[in-house]
Amino acid sequence: MTRHAFKHIWPLLVEHGAEALAMPTVARHALVAAYQPLLEASGSRTFVLGQLGQSLDGRIATPTGCSRDINGAAALDHLHRLRALVDAVVVGAGTMIADNPRLSTRRVLGRSPARVLIDPRGRARGATRWLAADGCRHIVFSDAGDGWPASVERIGSAAGDGVFSPADIVAVLARRGLHKLLIEGGADTISRFIDTGTMDRLHILLAPVIIGSGRTGLNLKPIDGLEAALRPAMRQFALEGGDVLFDCDLRDSVSESSTPSC
């Protein structure tokens, strides 16, 4: 499906949500399935989705930190669509410092979500683009009390030790009415949510490029044998420009491989 064709479908998903899935013009397009879990998530249960763009060899940046052009335009459109379907987008301090992202939905139709920063020590107070006065909420998990604009809702750690577990973050945001969460980066933040079993689904955007060195996309707890590896149920979607979306259901694992552990 081309980007042009999907532009005619996307407004129906934004306007009608889960009800749009039954419309014939929507159902016949395969990529819609990638957004179905978010569209159908409802009620008070939190749904946590992670998004990671990387090269064929699993790199998200070069050794000097260059990452902006790893994935193509269609992958970036996909990221903005995810933002339009969630209540809040969550990033860590490292991502905020490196990229100074706006965290908006400027590439697609739909409202921008609340913007959430995990920054225990206040390292990213110099980043400003996420603080645009466009009606979106700004929330920071930080024990650094000074230097935040008045528009920022600061949430301190329970023990004052700068520790914010993924489960606590999810619970705090849920109490504020934010139930659909997109964990956008960086690698350490996404890895912590996966390691603690706090993430429901992971979208990996694989770009047709080999970098050969640099930062890896995930850094999970080490395992001894392959029987302990995560084997999520997975769907694949080819995007225009060569990127491939891997939609990984972390709540649904396929049967373990018969391969020996070592």
Structural commentary:
By secondary structure, the protein is α/β, with parallel strands linked by helices. It is built from seven helices and eleven strands. It is globular, with a radius of gyration of 18 Å.
Spans of at least 5 consecutive residues with low confidence: none
How are the strands of the largest sheet arranged? 6-5-4-3-7-1-8-11-10
Question: How many DSSP H or I helices?
Answer: 7
User: What is the beta-strand fraction?
Assistant: 15-25%
Biggest sheet, open or closed, and with what strands and sense? 9 strands, mixed
Q: State mean pLDDT (0 to 100 scale).
A: 93
> Structural class from helices and strands?
alpha/beta
Q: Report the end-to-end length measured between terminal Cα atoms.
A: 41 Å
Which word captures the global form?
A: globular
Order of helices and strands: HHHEEHEHEEEHEHEEEE
Query: What's the helical proportion of residues?
Result: 10-25%
Q: Total number of β-strand segments? A: 11
Radius of gyration: 18 Å
